[in-house]
Amino acid sequence: MKLKIYTGAEVRELRRKLHLNQSEFWAPFQTTQSGGSRYESGREIPDPVQVLLNIAFGTDAKAAAIFDELRAFGNPKNKAKAAQGEAK
């Protein structure tokens, strides 16, 4: 599955549209205000945070697909089934 890669500018705009300060916005992502500030200023946003951003701001279908992929990853039997589904 292809995740949207959020830039710092995109995340800053999302935060502003939600009328949240950095502490309020970044807390649910287990990121400090200073960490969020660095991301918004252009530092690369780590993959785990990118996944959480996709879950939070993507479509319900995208969030469900992410969860399905994570569940399959944690269960080798499901991983094989998921791989077969992608091949179709």
From TrEMBL:
Domain RsaL-like HTH: from-to ranges: 12-55
Residues in the signal sequence: none
MF GO annotations: DNA binding
Gene3D superfamilies per UniProt: lambda repressor-like DNA-binding domains
Pfam family for this entry, one: HTH_92
Name this polypeptide is given: RsaL-like HTH domain-containing protein
Species per Swiss-Prot/TrEMBL record: Thauera chlorobenzoica
